[in-house]
Amino acid sequence: MRFTGKHAIITGGGSGIGAALCRALDRAGAQVVCTDIDEAAAGAVVSTLSPRARAARLDVTDAAAVQGVVDDVVARTGRLDLIFNNAGIVWGGDTELLTLDQWNAIIDINLRGVVHGVAAAYPQMLRQGHGHIVNTASMAGLTAAGQVTSYVATKHAVVGLSMALRSEAVPRGVGVLVVCPAAVETPILDKGAVGGFVGRDYFLQTQGGRAYDADRLARDTLRAVERNKAILVKPTVAQAQWWFARLAPGLMNRMAMRFVTGQRTRQVDRYPSSAADTG
Ligand SMILES: NC(=O)c1ccc[n+]([C@@H]2O[C@H](COP(=O)([O-])OP(=O)(O)OC[C@H]3O[C@@H](n4cnc5c(N)ncnc54)[C@H](O)[C@@H]3O)[C@@H](O)[C@H]2O)c1
């Protein structure tokens, strides 16, 4: 696929990986619709792009609004070539501290947000006979460690949704890619902490303390779309972890236990008033 002149919607485009995807697509000649619940953030990203790009406020938990953005692109241009279901949040901390409202919010954004994008875009792509759906999951969709349990649950669901959809979509002309990065340098690393959790420490520890670059991931993603790949895992060390998790799931889970226990101990040391305990 060449991106010149392609019409693309990106959700969560106002920050981090979504903003990097907007930049990469714009540079490649695509017509970008950068959407985000934070309209000002989407506008700020678009102000750095070519005049082809435009911004729109979009809350991915609102199915009708997602359909509206897709319908608008189709009404203007006759088609939708690409949708990047990328918006996401994280909660990090002991699972017993999460409220039901927090559980529902992460399911609504990380999973239902993707469902809404697929439900709005996929029928149109089938009608037009082509298109590409790109869902941002995570390494947390391929491996499982505690303290990000709600995040892991939603990202595993996005991986399953994407791989299943791909098996019926590709033979009908629609590509599906699921993107599974380990830690990427974006503001999410400092968001969503519950108790004494520190996302940056937690997520970077398995990557030698260094997060992957968001613009590099965006370029990797466009290459994976061009090659119609099923799944993109970055960086390389994460590919080894994924391989190991499939080879020895029991051992991987014991390693996750040690990792999470170590994290919790450090959190209590740092934040003695944290609700976490070492028991
Ligand atoms: N950064 C990482 O380490 C990492 C690793 C793996 C996967 N991811 C995934 O990448 C995606 C993008 O995350 P990021 O790292 O760029 O984070 P980010 O916080 O920088 O960006 C997320 C964007 O989503 C938007 N958003 C939140 N709720 C929304 C909603 N209801 N509707 C529309 N937009 C909403 C936010 O306003 C924000 O602009 C997420 O799905 C995340 O889970 C991130």
Describe what is shown at a glance.
With 279 residues, this protein is α/β, with parallel strands linked by helices. The chain is 49% helix and 13% strand. It has a single domain (7-270), classed as 3-Layer(aba) Sandwich (Rossmann fold), CATH 3.40.50.
Bound molecules: nicotinamide-adenine-dinucleotide
Rounded mean pLDDT score: 95
Helix share, percent: 40-55%
Major sheet strand order: 3-2-1-4-5-6-7
CA-based shape: globular
Sequence of secondary-structure elements: EHEHEHEHEHEHHEHH
Would you report the number of β strands? 7
CATH architectural name: 3-Layer(aba) Sandwich
Unreliable stretches: 275-279
> Separation of termini?
53 Å
CATH superfamily: NAD(P)-binding Rossmann-like Domain
Return the CATH class: Alpha Beta
Tell me the domain tally: 1
Radius of gyration: 19 Å
CATH topology: Rossmann fold
Total count of helical runs of at least 4 residues: 9
Main sheet summary: 7 strands, parallel
| Content-based structural category | alpha/beta
Percent range for β-strand residues: 5-15%
List keywords for this structure.
alpha/beta; binds nicotinamide-adenine-dinucleotide; disordered C terminus; Sc_DH/Rdtase_CS; 9 helices; seven-stranded parallel β-sheet; SDR_fam; globular
Descriptive report:
This protein has helices spanning 16-27, 39-46, 63-77, 100-128, 149-169, 199-204, 214-226, 236-247, 249-270, and strands at residues 7-10, 31-36, 54-57, 82-85, 131-136, 174-181, 231-234. The chain has a single domain (7-270), classed as 3-Layer(aba) Sandwich (Rossmann fold). The longest helix is centred in the middle third of the chain and has 29 residues, at 100-128. A 7-stranded parallel β-sheet has the order 3-2-1-4-5-6-7, with helices on both faces. It contains 9 helices and 7 strands; from the N terminus they run βαβαβαβαβαβααβαα. Helices cover 49% and strands 13% of the residues. With 279 residues, it is α/β, with parallel strands linked by helices. The radius of gyration is 19 Å and the shape is globular. The protein binds nicotinamide-adenine-dinucleotide.
